[in-house]
Amino acid sequence: MRAYSGKKKTPNLTAIVKLRVGHFALSRFLLFRWYCPVPDQFRTILGVRFYIGDLDGLLERIAQGGLIVAPSAPVMVRMEDDPAHKAAMEGADLAITDSSLMVLLWLLLTGERVRRISGLRLLRGLFSQGQFRSKGDTFWVMPSVADSQGNCAWLRSQGFSVDDRAAYVAPLYPRQGPLADPLLLAAIREQRPKLVVIALSGGVQERLGWYLRTQLESTPAILCIGGAIAFLSGRQTRIPVWADRLALGWLFRFASDPRGFSAKVADVGRLAPLLWTFRSRSVDSA
Predict the structure, then answer these.
(1) 139 DSSP β-pair partners
(2) Distance between CA 193 and CA 221 in Å, rounded?
């Protein structure tokens, strides 16, 4: 037995430092895993290529052309029902994370917090750059004559040179299946715009955008943003910037039209099972 020397044992500072550093690294890893955005610029969700970088990077990519979609949760669900819609979604050059429900479900299922950019925020960012304001730069596909007149009047008030030739009132397209519109295709070929904005309902505009993407010889930016322009022009209920940032736009839309909005989101409960089953893989459609 070793005799007691009367001195206290000196703590091993190296071991303590290593323990503290290891604890700190582990805690940072867990925080990064659950609360920080993933570092990649793209994430494939249900077979769709989503852009998850920042807004400035997204605006740069739009300038390069291609089909950009902004699917809501009901639009994502429709991929299971319509092969043509699924083909359009998967064929898009990129999608933006407009659906806050999808972003939340993805976090709960995978632990990855992808950055959300709504269609409304994208349109505001696009307008703030001062691009696409000259005559012939843009071409707009509108759902009705009243929407075309109201939205174009608002655009002109914001400094955009948009005449009657730069707006096209869409006919009533079929709810499912491939789309074709030779008159629209001919008008865009004649105008040769840098940006085509399709402001139709989700599930229709993606298939129309895919038709244009595959038929046009030189591809402009084809942006499917649904009602985002109407939120700005006042044709639909206005959504403040803070509400859009907090993913509360749905609340304003519900308050404005409870019955109509409820009908649009009736199938959103199917999104969670789809994400649970397929995650990044392509959805098995009917």
Answers:
(1) 196
(2) 9
- What three-state secondary structure class fits 111? coil
Segments making up each domain of the chain, as ranges: 10-37, 42-278
Sheet architecture: strand order including 66-69 = 42-45, 48-51, 94-96, 66-69, 221-224, 195-198, 138-142, 167-169
pLDDT in tens, 31-76: 444 455 555 789 999 999 999 999 999 999 988 999 999 999 999 9
d(CA 286, CA 74): 16
- C-alpha span between 182 and 45 (Å, rounded): 32
Residue 123 identity: L
Look at residue 37 in the predicted model and tell me its pLDDT: 52
Taking the model in full, what pTM does it have?
0.82
Task: Compute the distance between CA of residue 249 and CA of residue 209 in angstroms, rounded to an integer.
Answer: 25
Task: State pLDDT tens for residues 90-140.
Answer: 999 999 999 999 999 999 999 998 999 998 899 888 888 878 888 889 999
- From the centroid of its chain, how far is CA 246? 15
How far is 258 from 41, CA to CA, in rounded Å? 36
The answer to whether the Cα torsion of 212, 100, 249, 31 is positive or negative is negative
